[in-house]
């Protein structure tokens, strides 16, 4: 028994080392060469007889304009080819031409998508259009939940109300337990929607000779429709626990960055340290223990106004004033740096609202906040970042209008002043607009981050370059723990005093409960599909706008005559 335990302990580090090595660039290149370049002839180029193998970019067709991105994409393609093509194709023939043709088709599609991606306004897509869909999901979910909770309501299922207000053809009819056939019909409609979406993209991107090859087209569409859209997006990405875990990881990254930046001034108030530790490590206990522990650790919160003597109150006010002065100085310094550097930043657009005056342009930008994404995209201008829907989406998520309507009004006045006030610093190509655009381009849309994201995605979906074992659905208690951890991580982004004022409670357990209620909008996987499918359709329409004008069958007839 001891020997077996010792061997197991010794094997775990080696297994971790192998897992780390598979994600390195050297191991990734060797894996891609072993799967996709295993034969002597590939695309007409021979490698036999060479002592040193040629680089992968010299053997395989380029996928994008970056070799680092191509390496990660080819690693994902190699896993798919190994698991879903070679398992049955190698039993038929050892020929490698079919796999080469599949790679050529994928390479042609990725190059076409890259060219189209350069023409897409990514700032508007990430900061305006996708947040608008999320905001619609939040408002519709809360309205459906409120409508179903009425005692005299004829409909008691929030799914029925939500699907009625926000229908989607792939999610119809609504699956119910009383009608088992509805679940089967809904899955068939969802599968048909995936196939139609992928077929439409292939019809536009593929050359005519590849489009005429029905076998290759069917295989590629099956890989993308069922493996990526079906198992990945429609299956895993729509689960509430998966979304909560993703939000937790993003919040942990932001929390780590804030911790690095605030290490020096973190000792201004010694009172905040215990509360921050409770927020960070409070998940070791249950929610009830956290709430009771917080109430025991903070008993004088309610009676503090009566029983606290004058010197203690003066000391508290003194340190609070010092903290506010420090925060005001930091904000003033950030504003001065932004004003000083924004003049040297490149403009976001050459013209302002298609040659209109700045007042008309700013007024039009406010009018464009309503309507569909297609209506809100002027062809010759860009909306100011201040007026994009990211801010209203964040306000809807935290319910700022209900919790602090005065703060929501102040923010609206500040936004109006930035757009139409003196200097119009928030209008397109203004001082604030250039600064926000530069920050978005360097912090979010930086192409250097894409290989890291692809490497992390591959290591998560395909550990050790193989299909991960099917994940067991989390139990009810595990789902509650994942949700509680997500709520605690989000709450950790706020300072203790700000959280106490915003949630109108100094109890950490009460704050966690309120954040958890905001996360309820991602609890139902069926409702999440409405949001995820809408985002996928929006991205496809931005990349392939032809699908929004003509049908797949009509495009196919035009291509094939």
TrEMBL record:
<dbReference type="InterPro" id="IPR051837">
    <property type="entry name" value="SortingNexin/PXDomain-PKLike"/>
</dbReference>
<dbReference type="Pfam" id="PF02194">
    <property type="entry name" value="PXA"/>
</dbReference>
<feature type="compositionally biased region" description="Basic and acidic residues">
    <location>
        <begin position="1"/>
        <end position="12"/>
    </location>
</feature>
<feature type="region of interest" description="Disordered">
    <location>
        <begin position="287"/>
        <end position="307"/>
    </location>
</feature>
<dbReference type="GO" id="GO:0045022">
    <property type="term" value="P:early endosome to late endosome transport"/>
</dbReference>
<dbReference type="GO" id="GO:0005770">
    <property type="term" value="C:late endosome"/>
</dbReference>
<feature type="region of interest" description="Disordered">
    <location>
        <begin position="1"/>
        <end position="22"/>
    </location>
</feature>
<feature type="domain" description="PXA">
    <location>
        <begin position="66"/>
        <end position="255"/>
    </location>
</feature>
<feature type="compositionally biased region" description="Basic and acidic residues">
    <location>
        <begin position="293"/>
        <end position="307"/>
    </location>
</feature>
<protein>
    <recommendedName>
        <fullName>PXA domain-containing protein</fullName>
    </recommendedName>
</protein>
<keyword id="KW-0963">Cytoplasm</keyword>
<dbReference type="InterPro" id="IPR003114">
    <property type="entry name" value="Phox_assoc"/>
</dbReference>
<dbReference type="GO" id="GO:0035091">
    <property type="term" value="F:phosphatidylinositol binding"/>
</dbReference>
<dbReference type="GO" id="GO:0005769">
    <property type="term" value="C:early endosome"/>
</dbReference>
């Amino acid at each position: 028994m001891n020997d077996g335990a010792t061997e197991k302990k010794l094997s775990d580090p080696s297994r971790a080392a192998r897992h780390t090595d598979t994600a390195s660039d050297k191991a990734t290149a060797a894996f891609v060469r072993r799967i996709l370049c295993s034969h002597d002839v590939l695309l007409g180029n021979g490698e036999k007889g060479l002592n040193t193998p040629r680089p992968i970019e010299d053997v395989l067709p380029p996928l994008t304009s970056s070799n680092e991105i191509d390496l990660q994409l080819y690693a994902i393609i190699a896993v798919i080819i190994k698991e879903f093509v070679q398992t049955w194709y190698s039993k038929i023939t050892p020929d490698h031409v079919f796999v080469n043709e599949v790679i050529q088709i994928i390479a042609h599609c990725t190059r076409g998508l890259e060219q189209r991606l350069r023409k897409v306004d990514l700032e508007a897509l990430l900061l305006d259009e996708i947040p608008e869909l999320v905001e619609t999901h939040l408002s519709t979910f809360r309205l459906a939940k409120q409508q179903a909770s009425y005692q005299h309501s004829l409909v008691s299922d929030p799914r029925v109300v939500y699907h009625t207000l926000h229908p989607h053809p792939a999610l119809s009819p609504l699956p119910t337990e009383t009608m088992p056939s509805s679940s089967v019909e809904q899955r068939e409609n969802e599968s048909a929607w995936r196939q139609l979406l992928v077929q439409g993209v292939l019809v536009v991107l593929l050359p005519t000779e590849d489009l005429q090859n029905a076998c290759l087209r069917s295989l590629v569409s099956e890989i993308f429709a069922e493996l990526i859209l079906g198992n990945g997006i429609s299956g895993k990405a729509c689960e509430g626990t998966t979304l909560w875990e993703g939000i937790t990881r993003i919040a942990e990254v932001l929390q780590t960055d804030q911790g690095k930046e605030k290490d020096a001034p973190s000792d201004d108030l010694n009172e905040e340290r215990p509360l921050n530790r409770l927020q960070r490590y409070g998940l070791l206990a249950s929610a009830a223990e956290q709430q009771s522990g917080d109430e025991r650790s903070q008993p004088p919160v309610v009676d503090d106004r009566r029983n606290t003597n004058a010197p203690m109150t003066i000391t508290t006010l003194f340190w609070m004033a010092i903290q506010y002065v420090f925060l005001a100085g930091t904000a003033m310094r950030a504003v001065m740096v932004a004003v000083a550097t924004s003049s040297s930043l490149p403009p976001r657009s050459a013209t302002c609202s298609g040659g209109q005056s700045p007042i008309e342009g700013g007024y039009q930008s406010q009018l464009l906040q309503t309507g569909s994404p297609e209506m809100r995209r002027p062809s010759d201008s860009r909306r100011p970042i201040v007026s994009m829907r990211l801010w209203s989406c964040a306000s809807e998520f935290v319910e700022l209008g209900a919790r602090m309507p005065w703060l929501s009004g102040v923010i609206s006045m500040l936004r109006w002043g930035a757009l139409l006030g003196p200097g119009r610093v928030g209008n397109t190509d203004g001082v604030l607009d250039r600064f926000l655009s530069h920050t978005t381009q360097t912090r979010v849309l930086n192409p250097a981050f894409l290989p890291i994201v692809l490497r992390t995605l591959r290591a998560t979906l395909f550990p050790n370059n193989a299909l991960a074992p099917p994940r067991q659905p989390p139990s009810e208690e595990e789902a509650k723990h994942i949700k509680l951890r997500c709520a605690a991580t989000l709450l950790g982004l706020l300072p203790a005093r700000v959280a106490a004022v915003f949630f109108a409670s100094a109890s950490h357990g009460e704050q966690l409960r309120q954040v958890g209620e905001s996360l309820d909008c991602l609890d139902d996987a069926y409702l999440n599909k409405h949001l995820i499918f809408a985002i996928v359709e929006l991205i496809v329409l931005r990349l392939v706008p032809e699908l929004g004008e003509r049908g797949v069958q009509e495009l196919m007839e035009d291509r094939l005559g």
